[in-house]
Specification:
Number of helices: 12
CATH architecture of one domain: Alpha-Beta Complex
Structural class: alpha+beta
Number of strands: 19
Largest sheet: 6 strands, mixed
Oligomer: single chain
CATH superfamily of one domain: 2-enoyl-CoA Hydratase, Chain A, domain 1
Distance between the termini: 41 Å
Shape: globular
Low-confidence stretches: 1-9, 12-24, 396-404
Strand order of the largest sheet: 10-11-12-15-16-19
């Protein structure tokens, strides 16, 4: 991690603001030999000539500050999809975003092959309710084309006052023509961790994003369910979040070795995050669900657990966002969001532009079930006989049964509506049986 006075990083698409000074900004000629210095002077001279030519001859009258700002934006855009120049307006908006609640859609986006792509709609938000899906390409925001638009410009357009309307034109795989979706902005509040049970022996944990309470909430869920024999961790459509929470989550289930490492050009700033034996759940079998909307911190968790052979990864290939960005102010009102390192999993493989390939590939969809007429009739007969028994016993039989709340249990219907989850549960039950027979 970068030194604390230089920045705070996220392992996701949630920008983190850090106030910095520019007194320690690196000199262009620091530690340069004479040949390198001459080369830099020639390059700066070329840049100066280009700026002067644009200022004098360009069709529109641009100030020198406008030209320099455009030059910086062009530079950052050409570095990679996640580096950018935050001008006064963008920097101010980022402060609003990181201060807490804000009006928006609840969708995480990124650049893939130059196209503005939905990484994941966050559960329960306007974007999720409107039907946006991971992998959707946003072609237009209201009447503005997103072609040649930067990521920051797109995010700025999508953010706005709560209860205001925005129209997105999207291109979706297997749809014959673009779809037009209208969304009403709202205050974005996200519950990051949901827990349910599958039967009486499997604990299902859904992590929507990696905020500052994820590890705390997962620990609480494990303590409240000490008799769980297996664990499903659902990271589908999770765009990432805080690096320390991703590391802390893996540390709950791995007792030694590297969790993830961070490597950049500056060796002194490289970091290796390692597991600790204390408080580790070493024996509980785990299945992790992922898809194309699982990015960054989600990829660190799933990839690290996979490398440690601590979990079976089920679903579809993840997004492939494994780079580290920090915010570096260049004056009081402007800053750079700069990629300074990449993440590497315990095996040494990178996530960036590659993603995590699941151990068992399963497409999302409903489970096809062949109806057994004999079993159906038998089931109906049992229900009828149970009703007759209740008449005799004064409904004592029904009073003995305590049906769990549907809010805390994944029903059979829900399981068969989600092929990836059903496959994950079946694999987990096999792991539980194998472990019990040892």
């Amino acid at each position: 991690m970068m030194k604390r006075n230089k920045g705070l990083m996220t392992a996701g698409f949630f920008a983190t603001l850090t106030v910095l000074t520019v007194a320690g900004a690196p000199s262009l000629f620091a530690k340069s030999d004479s040949n390198t210095t001459v080369s830099k002077l020639e390059a700066l001279s070329k840049f100066t000539r280009v700026v002067g030519t644009v200022e004098k001859y360009y069709v529109d009258d641009l100030t020198i500050n406008e030209i320099i700002d455009k030059a910086i934006k062009g530079l950052m855009t050409n570095l990679d999809a996640h580096s950018s120049f935050l001008d006064t307006k963008s920097f101010k908006e980022m402060k609003i975003q990181t201060s807490g609640e804000f009006g928006g859609l609840g969708v995480t986006v990124g650049m893939r092959d130059g196209a503005l792509t939905v990484i994941a709609p966050l559960e329960g938000t306007p974007a999720y309710k409107a039907g946006l899906k991971a992998g959707d390409i946003i072609l237009k925001i209201d009447d503005k084309s997103t072609l040649n638009m930067t990521l920051d410009e797109a995010v700025s357009l999508m953010r706005g006052k709560p209860k205001t309307k925005i129209t997105l034109t999207i291109v979706r795989k297997n749809e014959p023509k673009p779809l037009v979706i209208t969304i009403i902005r709202d205050i974005i509040k996200i519950q990051s961790v949901y827990t349910k049970k599958v039967g009486s022996d499997i604990l299902y944990i859904r992590v929507v994003s990696f905020d500052k309470k994820v590890v705390q909430d997962i620990k609480k869920a494990l303590l409240e369910n000490p008799h769980a024999k297996g664990l499903i961790i659902d990271l589908r459509n999770n765009p990432g979040g805080l690096l320390d929470q991703a590391v802390g989550m893996v540390d709950l289930f791995v007792d030694e070795g590297v969790i993830v490492s961070q490597k950049g050009r500056i060796k002194d700033e490289n970091q290796v995050y390692k597991a600790h034996s204390e408080g580790t759940y070493k024996k509980i079998p785990i299945v992790v669900l992922v898809n194309g909307g699982s990015a960054s911190a989600s990829e660190i968790v799933s990839g690290s657990l996979q490398d440690h052979r601590r979990a079976v990864i089920v679903g579809e290939k993840t997004f492939g966002k494994g780079s580290v960005q920090i915010i570096m102010p260049i004056n009081k009102s402007e800053a750079l969001r700069l990629t300074i390192a990449r993440y590497y999993l315990p095996s040494g493989r990178t996530i960036q532009a590659v993603g995590v390939t699941p151990d068992i590939k399963v497409s999302f969809g409903k489970v096809t079930v062949e109806e057994n007429h004999f079993e159906l009739k038998e089931s109906q007969l049992k229900e009828h006989l149970k009703g007759e028994l209740e008449k005799i016993d004064g409904k004592k039989e029904s009073q003995k049964e305590e049906k769990p709340s549907k809010e805390n249990v994944i029903t059979t219907e829900e399981l068969y509506d989600d092929n990836q989850l059903k496959e994950g549960v079946d694999i987990l039950r096999a792991l539980i049986i194998t472990q019990e027979r040892k």
